[in-house]
Amino acid sequence: MSKPPISRGFFGQRRDDRSDRVPPGQHLTPDFPVLSAGPTPHVDLSNWSFFLADGDRPIAEWRWAEFGTLPQREVTVDIHCVTTWSKLDTAWRGVTVDALLEAAGLGEPPTPYAMIECIGGYTTNVPVEDMIGGKAMVATEFDGRPLSPEHGGPARLLVPHLYFWKSAKWVRGIRFTDEDEPGFWEQLGYHIHGDPWREQRYAGD
Amino acid sequence: MSMNEDADYQPLDGNAAAGLLRELFALEMTQAEVTCGSCGAVGAVGAARLYGGPMGAILRCVNCEAVVVRLVRTPAGLWLEMQGARRLFVRSPG
Amino acid sequence: MPATDAMRRRLTWQIAEVSDVVDETPRTRSLFLNLRGWPGHRPGQHVDIRLTGEDGYQAQRSYSIASAPEAARLAITVERIDGGEVSPYLAGFVEPGDRFELRGPIGGYFVWTAATSEPLFLVAGGSGIVPLMAMLRHREAAASTVPALLIYSSRSIENIIYREEIDRMSADDGGLVVFHTLTRRQPEGWAGGSRRIDREMLKSVGIAPAAMPRIFICGPTPMVETAATALREIGHAPERIRTERFGPTGA
Questions:
Q1: What's C213's domain CATH number?
Q2: Is C108 left (phi over 0), alpha (psi -120 to 50) or beta?
Q3: Looking at the structure, do residues C95 and C141 belong to the same domain, yes or no?
Q4: What pLDDT score does B2 carry?
Q5: pTM of the model
Q6: Residue C209 CA to chain centroid, in angstroms?
Q7: Which distant-in-sequence residues (6+ apart) come within 8 Å of A71 by Cβ?
Q8: Does the interface ipTM go beyond 0.85?
Q9: Where residue A117 sits, what CATH number does that domain have?
Q10: For residues C228 and B84, what is the distance between their CA atoms, to the nearest angstrom?
């Protein structure tokens, strides 16, 4: 099979980033690219709510004002998109999944897996193990300001140790499931887990 | 990349997915008329709103924004999901 | 017909060599390409271009074909987007002799040929003029007498792509009417439009619904959607309106 011709002088934006903070196949970006599977919803905070459910059984629900009274945490993390950009030291504020479980009175998560559900219908699956112990939060602020709609505001899930498609924008709730069921992108060939350090971009990787 | 961070994400349309569709279908698909499974609206694939950027082609109904077609190219192959399309009509050429 | 055969042919990557580059405006450049076995195209279609770097990294973008099918060489026009990955390369670095992969022609929905007898109503925003220019070049090459109208929005006079050629076309051909609107800066004594394309402009300047024109709108998504909605409200049948939304990459 013949190789494609090298385009003289083309380097794209891919730099040979050897930093130990950049997973394999990624390059650093100073920007914050926006990728959406659908139109940006514009949410009235008076209508917003966040739920925890175990299958069909509701466990807890918070409206915006109540959500704001839950313990808040600020984190600075690196994020990695499957489309190969990585962004270091991003600052977020929100409520950890641990705090949500505690506020809901759950000593233990009810199942090992969860489906994240969002306004507009987007879904992604995340094992509970990947959300507890401080690994995930429902973020409402980015870079010291309320999260903009384009980036998932009023609230998005933040699971920075997995590829960023798992950090679902416009999050509505977490539905605990018995099985690890594929969400929106996972149904179409993206990896069920999505660990950037093992380069789990596509199913079978 | 978004030049204005505060601006709403702007979708393209099915014309931009034409190349990807050509990899799968023998016929040119952007002229195909698709019936939305959600609201019943009929429109050309080329006119549907396209989201997903580099992750894949997500075509949505112009009338109700429901997902009509999803197309993802992975190293292993091409995934196509058309649950959101009730039916498709491709007119014969000539 | 050759163009129909092209639609059924397998779409494969081929090598294109740049034979000429022409700066159209400060931000846009046309590339004229040599290709082997190019099957021909219909105005409105586009090509995919793929660049491969030394390390094997690849980037792919789509660009509307700017040239008429009758033209001697295939041409694309690329707008240089600040911070873009591909457009600064194609519209700033590439020289005659450079090669990259290309496949096409692609598309069948956003297409017009002079075999169509209805009046042609074109609405362009910025680099959205490119596929519409292929249509107008084809119309001229085919000596078509179909009445045509172009409403073309640009930021300023220096940013009007193909300005001299468009002005010459409309001066030479009474059947082609062109209305320019400049949205940011207008020169002194400017007689054209000085705002974004809106319903009022489309109604007062455009071809009336009674003439049943074929309408093609191309440009940034907000402009395309505004224009398409307005034209439907004015009374044009939705099936007569075809749209192509451009992203920041120009296609």
A1: 3.40.50.80
A2: alpha
A3: no
A4: 29
A5: 0.90
A6: 23
A7: A95, A96, A99
A8: yes
A9: 3.90.420.10
A10: 24
